[in-house]
Amino acid sequence: MNTRLEAALAVSTVIFALRSDPGSGLSSLWLPLVRRTRDPYLGRWALPGGGLPTDEGLAGAAARALRETTGLTPKYLEQLYTFGDPGRSPGGRVVSVVYWALVESGEAALAVEDENVHWFPADHLPPLAFDHNRIVEYALWRLRTKVEYSRIAHAFLGETFTLAQLREVHEAVLQKALDPANFRRTVESSGTVVDTGRRVAGVPHRPPRLYRYNDSVPAAEPGALEPAIG
Amino acid sequence: MNTRLEAALAVSTVIFALRSDPGSGLSSLWLPLVRRTRDPYLGRWALPGGGLPTDEGLAGAAARALRETTGLTPKYLEQLYTFGDPGRSPGGRVVSVVYWALVESGEAALAVEDENVHWFPADHLPPLAFDHNRIVEYALWRLRTKVEYSRIAHAFLGETFTLAQLREVHEAVLQKALDPANFRRTVESSGTVVDTGRRVAGVPHRPPRLYRYNDSVPAAEPGALEPAIG
Fold first, then answer.
1. Which residues of B touch A223 (CB under 8 A)?
2. Which residue of A has its CA nearest to B85?
3. For an engineered disulfide with A44, which of A129, B41, B110, B122 has Cβ 3.0 to 4.6 Å away?
4. B91 is in which domain, residue-wise?
5. Quick one: which H or E segment has residue B94?
6. How far is CA A153 from the centre of its chain?
7. Which residue of chain B is at minimal alpha-carbon distance from A97?
8. Last residue in a domain, options A149, A176, A192
């Protein structure tokens, strides 16, 4: 009952952003990975992460890993799950506290990328180090479930957006086309977005309206322990 | 990026069962706590838990703490959250992976109780060690949210049950009276319970029907990593 063994502890982050395919113009989910520079899994791609300094909270360590890897700040950050199977690391037992984060698309375009940091399409990953493929699959499931009942899609967008942009986020996350008229009705009746009264500049005929998120609507999880950043 | 500090790691479990008040006959949520036998917080009540042996998974360690403390086996066990604020333990940084569990009421009545293991009403706890009051509050929020959209209420009941018993579980968890006719309609239309064709024995006039859970209905969280036990 009172034994507390010392275990190696890591904090890792699954970072999602939307990127457009230059050819088709369609958006899909991408995430940054880092190349391992030591054993085990030397040379393999892995989730960004690291240890837990004694004066840093878990969410703080997750946001720092994100910042150090990509130079970005997340608009949404939430604890995903803690993974601790005895066999998950060949180098000895490691317990990984994993967070997931959403980054705004415009900012994600500015992300650092070099020989050891590279972005991959989330649904077409190479074999990753440790159990990181399974972790990404679980994070994708959580994101896709949550985008249907919570108001997190706007984390991929800027301060204001058109309903077409918001629909494209949902389509990219859920990987299916949504009927524009139905989507508009559902969003408008939900009360989660507010018409700013402004329209997209530079569009001559019927420029689309600009919306912002309605901050007065409570988030779906009032009991969440760490509120979303941003 | 590659530093992994050694951190003290604990696995704790919030264990819920329903108990009837002998006077009113009404059920409410109770949980077992253990008295701390050393500093910090010597003598205070705390969640059952302990360390993580190198050959044991996180869920396995959580179920073992439950078994060692109460002599019980959970019907439902799920990871709740990992707590790791730097200041949460005065004796040095401890990261706690917390699970929550539901125990069948009939079995809970057989639980071990002695000077150092005691059951308390979940909504009326004394000041606990560490941040354990906050952890219990979060577990209560998760249970109350989940009982409304998922089929976990039957974990408090035996193999078969009447609709009145199932309604009493919901009433005890949610702490509000539910209209019997509405509850019956909602449950029957959900398809989550099956009429066994049998009735409660020993009731002379119109004995209530016995139901069981419909295992063919998928659980609410197909992506959950550790399926419910039992």
1. 138, 141-142, 145
2. A57
3. A129
4. 8-149
5. strand B94-102
6. 10
7. B82
8. A149
Classify residue A1: in a domain, yes or no: no
- Beta strand A193-199 with A45-46 is unpaired
Residue A84 to residue B8, Cβ atoms within 8 A: no
Convert the pLDDT of each residue in A179-215 to its tens digit.
999 999 999 888 889 999 999 998 888 899 999 988 7
Q: Do A68 and B93 touch (CB under 8 A)?
A: no
Helix B180-190 vs helix B163-174: angle between axes, to the nearest 10 degrees?
110
- Domains in chain A, number: 2
Residue B217: per-residue pLDDT: 62
B58 and A95: CB-CB below 8 Å? yes
CB within 8 A of B38, min separation 6: which ones?
A2
Looking at residue B228, its pLDDT comes to 39
- How far is residue A145 from each of residues A28, A102, B25, B44, B195, measured CA to CA in Å? 16, 15, 40, 40, 31
**For A84-143, what is each residue's pLDDT tens digit?**
998 888 877 889 999 999 998 777 777 778 889 999 999 999 999 999 999 999 999 999
DSSP secondary structure, chain A, as one string: -----EEEEEEEEEEEEEEE-TTT--EEEEEEEEE--SSSSTT-EE--EE---TT--HHHHHHHHHHHHHS---SEEEEEEEE--TTS-TTS-EEEEEEEEE--HHHHTT---BTTEEEEETTSPPPPSTTHHHHHHHHHHHHHHHHHHSS-GGGGS-SSB-HHHHHHHHHHHHTS---HHHHHHHHHHHT-EEEEEEE-TT-SSSPPEEEEE-TTSPPS-TT-SSPPP-
- Tell me, yes or no, whether B2 lies in a domain: no
What CATH number is associated with residue B164?
1.10.10.10
Name which of A54, A68, A94 is nearest B1 (Cβ-Cβ): A68
Spell out which residues of chain B touch residue A9, defining contact as CB-CB under 8 Å: 4-7, 9, 95
Confidence band for A7, pLDDT divided at 50, 70 and 90: low
Residue B222 belongs to a domain: no
B29 and B115 within one domain = yes
Residue type, A55: D
